[in-house]
Give the backbone structure.
Amino acid sequence: MEIDIESLERATLDAVAPPVVESLAGWLIPIDSTTIGRAISAVPLRHDGTDTTLIGEIESLYKQRGHKAQFRIADVVGLTSLHTFLREHGYVPLQPTLTMVGRVSDWPQPWPAANVQLSLLPPEEWKRVYLSDSFDPLDGANRVRALSRSSSLVYAHLSDESGPAAAGAASFSQGWVGLHGLRTVTDARRKGYAQALIAALGTVAVSKGINRSFLQVEEGNLPAIDLYRRLGFQTAWRYHYWRRES
């Protein structure tokens, strides 16, 4: 699959919807008060020839807004000089994360018994999954806030006999469908609920005529990666968040 890096990165920020996104010569600079790394890390729109002289300007933009600068940089040869520059200036690569791409046509067909509910607005049952005891409360609240204010999402959730059990969303932007915030509460895991959500969201993608898809998943989340690979997703690149330790 041919990957347009710029459109994918713009679609990523359309989904997590930081209130401010600055642009600077081939960079997007999202600014927010949140725990969501993608919403607070400057990202280059190319994977080659990135100008390291802009790092100081990006740091200044963050400082003017009252935030520390951080960067989301792919681990690719074309950005080696940027990696070196950041290391030399006190930044450390953390939280390795995969960007994976696939085709909606490879996703499973929905099954009625799953009873997945789709909505253009985030319902309370959807929010309750993120705010449950299964997840960090601050991060859950931040994800609810960020995903709720996006204008490009369709929300999906399902409940079982114990209540709201799983939730997620798909963004439709820049010619991509992106999967975001897939969560299943602890007692409902290994029942196929995440796959059911993806299948239901796939029907929306088909109706919109969008076949190329993407997601981001932490490298250590092996059960999720295994699921995504079974659905045809492949790793496009790995990235790190580059942050100063102090």
Q: What stands out?
A: The chain has a mean pLDDT of 95.
